[in-house]
Amino acid sequence: MLRAIFVGLIFATAFFFAARESDIGSAAFLTALAFVGGSARLDMRPSTVAAGLLVAAIVSARQKKDVAFIVVAILWINVHPSAVLVPLVALALRPILTIPSALALLVNPYGWRAIAAPIQLTLFARSGAFVNAEWLPSPPALFPLLYVCVLIGVLLFAVQRKEIPRFILFALFAYFAIAHVRNQGLFFAAFPLLSLPLVKVPRVAASVAAGALVLFALATSPHHDGIEPHRFPIASVARLKQTGFAGNIYNPDQFGGFLIWSFYPQRRTLTDGRNELYHGYIPEYARARTDSRAWHALLGKYRIDLAVDEDRGTINTIDAMTKQQRQIPASLAYWPPNAWALIAKDDVSTVFARRAAFPPAEIARWELPR
Fold first, then answer.
1. CA-CA-CA-CA torsion for 10, 126, 142, 41, nearest 10 degrees?
2. 220, 249, 280: which is the final residue of a domain?
3. Tens of pLDDT along 305-345?
4. Mean pLDDT across the chain
5. Domain check: are 202 and 250 in the same one?
6. What span, in angstroms and rounded, lies between the C-alpha atoms of 322 and 324?
7. Looking at the chain, which terminus has fewer C-beta neighbours within 10 angstroms, N or C?
8. Same domain? 155 vs 117
9. Residue 305 backbone phi and psi in degrees, to 5
10. Is 70 exceeded by the pLDDT of residue 197?
11. 199: confidence class by pLDDT, cuts 50, 70, 90
């Protein structure tokens, strides 16, 4: 509910100030378009707060509220690393604040390191050392609305050719959104304020179109409270809790946040969705996925006694002695039945317990047939 209210406030604020500077009809339509494109990307995480702070920064700069802009810069750097973009916002919309806003970014517990870290992280993400869907480019086939909004912004500027600095800022956020999926929330939040909505359109037609877009978002997006069962191992984790089995947990990165939320600090997970931060673990894990000896060494190094894994289908294996190839279920390769017991499963995950780590009677109590 808090997330829904906050996202609503982001676009309500963007609409209010876009309408003050331009035609209310076009502002309503462009804001609704941005809401449809951005609502799915603005989930319960710090980047959503950053999107709200971006709107606040743009409004503060446009309204020449210099103190408010500096306050936003300080809040932003303490919430999300995308705050390094604040001086660029100032340069485009309020040049006098470029240097003060850059200095404001130093007001955080880590000083200059908070500014250097996201730059280093971006370079690491582009190195190809790991794969995280959020750091991949945004393909048009998957995100057509992103490209529609970019095209609209370009066409509006081509027709009017006004406020070049604002268009440059628009183009910058468009580039970031296209280059990395994770940046789409920032682009869509800023879109109504940066896309120069100065073309007048009939208010009734614009209102109907905007309402239709919001209804489309309502009809095509899941709206419910609680955790999404098609994304997270809710049933499996509930059963794992019932077993009382303790120990470090192996997991794919997309389950990490949910497992930390469910078990920390009693049980520790191996990784989480911030996998771009684990520079040492990533190459180690990559080797282990293709070599059984490295795999067993990895599990031993991190003292893994439990595993909440995704369904990986089948894999090709090569016998180290005979070099014979065969295809087997991935769970048999990574979690062989003689060493690991299946104790829980649901639509998105399977849970294994290391037999040697727990009493045989307890394993037998909870073990499921494979």
1. -20
2. 220
3. 999 999 888 878 777 677 778 888 888 889 999 999 999 99
4. 90
5. no
6. 5
7. N
8. yes
9. -115, -15
10. no
11. low
| 339's tokens | 């060493």
Gap between the Cα atoms of 82 and 189, Å rounded:
14
The pLDDT value recorded for residue 80 is 94
Phi, psi at 22, each rounded to 5°:
-155, -160
Mean pLDDT of 64-91: 96
* Beta-bridge partner residues of 11: none
Q: What integer pLDDT is reported at residue 208 of this predicted model?
A: 83
Residues 260 and 210 occupy one common structural domain: no
User: What Cα–Cα distance (Å) separates residue 232 from each residue in 58, 66, 304?
Assistant: 36, 43, 20
pLDDT, residue 218, reads 81
Tokens of 81: 């690393």
> Quick one: 185 and 276 in the same domain?
no
Do residue 279 and residue 328 come from a single domain? yes
- The answer to whether residue 228 sits within a structural domain is no
* CA-wise closest residue to 171 among 92, 90, 257, 229: 92
Amino acid at 362: E
Domain that holds residue 84: 2-220
When pLDDT is averaged across residues 346-359 and rounded to a whole number, the result is: 96
Contact 279, 221 (CB under 8 A): no
Kindly state whether residues 45 and 163 are assigned to the same domain: yes
In a domain, residue 117? The reply is yes
Nearest to 35 by CA among 155, 242, 185: 185
**How many structural domains comprise the chain?**
2
Q: Report the relative pairing of strands 340-345 and 350-354 from DSSP bridges.
A: antiparallel
Residue 136 lies in a domain: yes
* N-to-C CA span, the chain: 40
- Tens of pLDDT, residues 152-175: 999 988 887 778 899 999 999 999
Structure tokens at 136: 């991949």
CA distance 70 to 163: 23
Alpha-carbon gap, residue 217 to 31, rounded angstroms: 13
